[in-house]
Model the fold of this input.
Amino acid sequence: MSRAQLVEMARKDLEHGRNGTLDQVDDVYQVPIEYYYDAERWEAEKAKIFRRMPLMLAATAELPEAGDYKAMEAAGVQVLITRTRSGEVKAFVNMCSHRGARLVDNGCGTAHKFTCPYHAWTYSPDGDLVAIYSEDDFGEIEKRAYGLTELPSLEKSGLIWVTLDPKSDLDISRFLSGYDELLDQFGFKDWHFQHMQRVEGPNWKVAYDGYLDYYHLPILHRNSFGTEIGNQANYYSWGPHTHLGRPDAGLEEFEGKTDEEWPITTLVAGVWTIFPHISIASFGGGGRSVMISQLFPGDTPETSYTNQIFLMEKVPDTDELKQEAQQQFDFLKFVVQEEDYATGIALQKNLDVGARNHVLFGRNEGGGQRFHKWVDAILETPDEDLNKLFQTG
Done:
């Protein structure tokens, strides 16, 4: 069914390309300008969005084998994701139950136990407390009550989602709204993790607006890649998650083919965003690859940072392929850092000077409109009603 949906979207993009049209929403939309810098709202976004919504924190390829782990900080929460002996993924607060020390430094690795660097309490990848240093001296406690604090998590489509609130009852599958079935067509579960790099940016919503926007491509990216794609997007949404296609008459070469005959590289082309902080874009340098942009709020309302995670369908096994892949990664960092985010950082400085009281999203910018409406809706929704916001498909 998901492949059929991909073909249906491609056929719509073909029709728009032939007719010289694009999907447009009903009206121009205004976003109050203070939403991009107001400290109180920013704190609410961190608490009610980043700490309540499932976040895509890792790819399966980053911890493919039993004993592998990934440690990172997300929205101020230190997280440890493990691959247990049974092959299951689990996520925990990266915090010893004794006195709160961080168990593992940020990064990926392999370990069949985690020993606290402060007092040497030791935990299994399943989160169980298995040893207390100088236990006879410490005193008697019930070890089962002092395992690591587990966070809700789900591995699906070669990606791993984690909810930072350990008490959350938001169903992650429900939150995905069937979008994971489309993402499954990439086949990420069998891909290779190649590289990660970090880029500093403006307010997280300024940064994310750009991921939902083809309108700027032939202008801002005119000297890099933007003229290859054009400035028009068609938006397809599942809950708060959005795929950006585009009017493309060139797809007529596949028109007479069955659903199964359409090449998967064509069907998954474009940009795939996962609310509230992920963008996935496909590239070809050094072999078929994707850049997963993993966006987080920074230390102030005016800042953010993005982890650029590069997955490749196949391991580059020659010096030439490795060089091509590295050139692709360097190019993409340059484009985001020196074009997108440099523009966003300069833009950010204009927002609170009082020149305007709102920014605009046009009828051709439906993805941005939908994103901001979802931000508003989630901020207004109490914990007990979160599951009602999402549908399963």
